[in-house]
Predict the structure.
Amino acid sequence: MSDQAANSMTPLKQILAQRTREGARVRFVGTPDWQQGRTTFGGVLSALAVQAMRDVCGSDWPLRALQTNFVGPVAPEAFEVEVILLRQGKNIRQVQARVLQVDASGTEQVGGVLLGVFGTGRASALPELRPAQDEVARTADQAAAWPYIPGVTPAFTQHLELRHAEGGVPFSGSTESHSRTYVKLKDGEGVDAELQAVLLADAGPTPALAMLQGFAPASSVSWALELRPVEVGDPQGLWRMDKDALATGEGYVNEKTLLWTPCGQLAALGYQVVAVYA
């Protein structure tokens, strides 16, 4: 099913509300408006997997780290997340999840493998360090909005407000290898800050695409995300996504992402390996 099939929008809270659980498996139904190319957008897939981990193993501790390997495409239809509690300690809970979907032949295929680390806060002699957010070329009001163009931009981007603040634009032949973007989930009501952080940290294209002079598809291969418990501030406010391509070559990009809340707190640090087919 192509991006053009995304002719209606299903809010994330609706997908969450309609999930069902049987034992250690949680079933979700994806929709075409959350697609990225021929698969479900990795950010929403990871957020749903985190929700499945919470459902099975408990939601009492915040998510501290998430490692995701995108193994294969997940079609915009029913899929299950199988959850395994690997270890429960006094302060740390380690949880594995596999995204599973039955293909046309009736065979269950693995679409993704994730490892979530949940940890409770505790008293510590370690001083608190909160990095400051760097200034960018344009404020949110000055930044240019990225339009959603059916059949051109990925279907999932219709759920997001994206404003380009700094860096190269994809496929423009730029010499810049970074991007600074204001972003928010348009239909974020009823979706907590932790799940929004997971989704938004994967929302933008790799800035390495700006160095190309023509279109080329790209897809995430692996993703490591580290999260901080934060105050969001304005629930309707814009987050900021800072992405830097650290190294490129042989069809791969190594990139870093910093995600900041609307009130300027560092919410997540992400590192990805992205395959670019050019």
Remarks:
- The domain at 144-276 is CATH 3.10.129.10 (Thiol Ester Dehydrase; Chain A).
- Residues 31 and 76 are 5 Å apart (CA to CA).
- Helices lie at 12-17, 42-57, 193-200.
- The chain is about 10% helix and 40% strand.
